Amino acid sequence: MTARRYAGSCQCGAVAFEANLDVSEPIACNCSRCQRLGSVLAFAPPESFTLLRGEDALTEYLFNRNVIRHQFCRTCGVQPFAYGVGPDGSPMVAINVNCLDGVDPRALPVRVYDGRAV
Description:
- By secondary structure, the protein is mainly β.
- The chain has one helix and ten strands, in the order βββαβββββββ.
- The strands form three sheets. Strands 4-9-8-7-6 form a five-stranded antiparallel β-sheet, with no helix packed on it. A three-stranded antiparallel β-sheet has the order 1-2-5, with no helix packed on it.
- A hairpin with a 6-residue loop joins strand 1 (4-9) and strand 2 (16-21).
- The longest helix is centred in the first third of the chain and has 6 residues, at 32-37.
- The radius of gyration is 13 Å and the shape is globular.
- The mean pLDDT is 92.
């Protein structure tokens, strides 16, 4: 599958975004945070991500090595995306595929990432 434009949001709609993504093989991380959240993630460079509304509705959470800036809606508590860096050191946005319109993450072949070992 190739990248295409997706729209997404938090549950209440206060935060909305668009992103060019390839969701053909998202990841599920088993670290103490991602496992509890149930996030299914696809990644995009910042220039492929557009926050349409809700910057003022977001709050941020950092944990562990403080390198991933988890973004949450202050109203509904959903984490639609996070800012971080890829393995090569380049900036990236981790999009929670559960928050994309018209995508069923349970129908995708999810690859497990061993975040506990990192």
